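tool_call: predict_structure(chain=1)
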Amino acid sequence: MHLDKIRFSKTALDAIPIPSKGLYYFDTEVSGLAVRVLPSGFKTYYLYKRLKGKDYRIKIGSADDISVFKARELAKYYKEEILAGNPVQTGAKDKNALTLKDLYQYFLSEKRAYLAPRTYQDYLDLWRRYCQKIGHKPVSDITTDDMRNLHYHLTVEKGIPYAANRTIMMLKAVYNLCIRSGLYKQLNPCLAVKLNKEKPRIRALGNDEMNRFLDAVREFDDPTSRNAIMMMLYTAARKSNVLSMAWKDLDLEKGVWVIPKTKTSDNEPIALVPQAQEILKEMWKISTNQFVFSSYSRTGHLVDIREAWNTILRNAGIKNFRLHDIRHTLATRLIADGVPVFTVKKILTHKSIASTQVYVNLGVEDVRGDLTKTVNKIMERK
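tool_result:
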């Protein structure tokens, strides 16, 4: 038997020369997966497996009908069945036999390198919690009604409307990628789902809360966690960016921090106020590696400061306040102080002005002072 090995891909399979007699090529990624090439140019996937002295040769299907991804998945599945001692039942022969789980796994494999760690974990959690049942259905059998029913189930029966939206949005992205790649050739069934209306969550500290918060932070005994939290307040940067702040990205003479990758852009310059620069001077004395907020974690920098955060909130007597709400607090203060919305957009590294606009809708206490000044001026003219 011809035993050449190549890494299977559509390009590699198309490049195989037409033989004078049937030849086999084996995949370098999944052992036992082979493609048989006939003089006619017809290619067929097979699985070869030897177990306890017995040879197995299982026909998977035509390479014209089955993608490399699906062939590998089927080969792995058949090997598991053989090892378990189960009779192997070869299934459908074309792409329509793909399940939603197949599309989801392909999506993750293609997008993993481009997803932020938090986003990747969110996708794993959404699938594990809400998509297990529908995930085993063949994609050819999944309709827009199935997606509507999933959204309705999560929204009404489970009472988690935001999670319902996130689940459909994830599945929509899965289908879109698979459509572009040719793995799925029907309309995206998620397009017909009407998402729930969402109100942006804006939680900002009032004046009294801010005073208690700052006192609690200053009194916290761990300088690394304490300074990381204050750096979030001074820069309005996201937690992940602050905790992974590296010395190489800082220009201390110019007072500029260039964030290599934010949620919306790359190499984003951030102005460092004097208070932030003072923190950097303090951290320079205690940092142990290339990161400002260094630690002995696998990453080399702080990753989880929930314990410190919860202690600070408890000592300050503050509830319902997340680390991300520090950004909200600074944004609302900037708007209240008359800073133009486009400037706030730049400070928050928002991609669109719409994301910043929500902070303009301030509460009563935030505008009372300006309103009083204006009314007083009107009355003084009488």
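agent: Confidence is low (pLDDT under 50) at residues 90-96, 362-368. Proceeding to next step.
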